From TrEMBL:
GO terms for cellular component: Holliday junction resolvase complex; nucleus. Keywords: DNA damage, DNA recombination, DNA repair, Nucleus. GO terms for biological process: double-strand break repair; mitotic intra-S DNA damage checkpoint signaling; replication fork processing; resolution of meiotic recombination intermediates. This is ERCC4 domain-containing protein.
Amino acid sequence: VLPAKRCPARLLPREPDPVPLSALLQADGGARVRAALQAANYSCVVESQAVPCSITWRRKSVLSQAEDGTEWTEEPNLLVVLGLEQFLSMVRGYKQEAQGCAQPKDTLRSFVSRVMEKMPGRVLALTVVEVEKYFRYLRAQSKKRLPRSAATGSQAEDRGGQRKKQVKDPGLEITRLDVEDALVDLQLHTHVQVSFFESWEELGEFATMFTKAVAEAPFKREQQNTGFSFYLENKWCRGVKVDHDGKGLFEVWKRQIQQFNRVSAEMAEAVVSAYPSPWLLVQAYSRCSSEQERENMLADIVVCRGAGVTATQRRVGPELSRRIYLHMTSHDPDFCLDVTG
């Protein structure tokens, strides 16, 4: 009896993956993130995770008939939601560390290192909500401080205390430049990106798009796996569809002209616009009275580049005109059209 073999996972681009949610639901907007995922028909599972406030993904794999049932495969992606106070504290830690503070501080880089130790092999992404709200609070406070006198200091403290409570920031005076410095340090050493969102609704939309990308990743990788290393996945390199009524032959003719060395799409467009088919071009050659006239027949065709004030014009020129003529009329299969390559 042969051992049962597992069938490969189905490549369904829109197959919903269970999204385990941990302490994220305990955050202020965690429920809104979960609601956005469920609205997109993604099933969510609440469970304890090694990293708090994180989202991971599992994919359903189909087993063979001998192994009745399904199997869940853990995806490497890990999305961590940092609290605003936690993020600002780590930025301040990096600022103090950069200023020469001897006491070790908690920074974004040290946080990523701890996460990777707990969950090695993960593709980590960080998100933060309401950072712009914090900066708006700082701008409002700085504008109010300017006209105030020292006599109104007590009233300023009361109002400032209310604003600090509103943004839940216990006085961490972090500037936008401080945040940028900490992000540059993080990206240079760990290559981890941080995404910022104005609201929890925006984070929910991002989590939904992220989940869709994770679900479609194997399907897209399979599409890109052509099996030929020399094949270029490019629009210009792919063939042109020709219908039964001949639609598409004009594009084939233009691609043929564009295959010449040093011929741009604009030059090919100009040539095929003047002579929409190879047969029309051959007929035009036959009406010429001399060999030199045939070689220079296309030289004066105008090639337009760009549009508006940046538009420029040039001509096809005698060199390309000669190469196209030889290509269309030569009977020698070994003839070199372009000795310069």
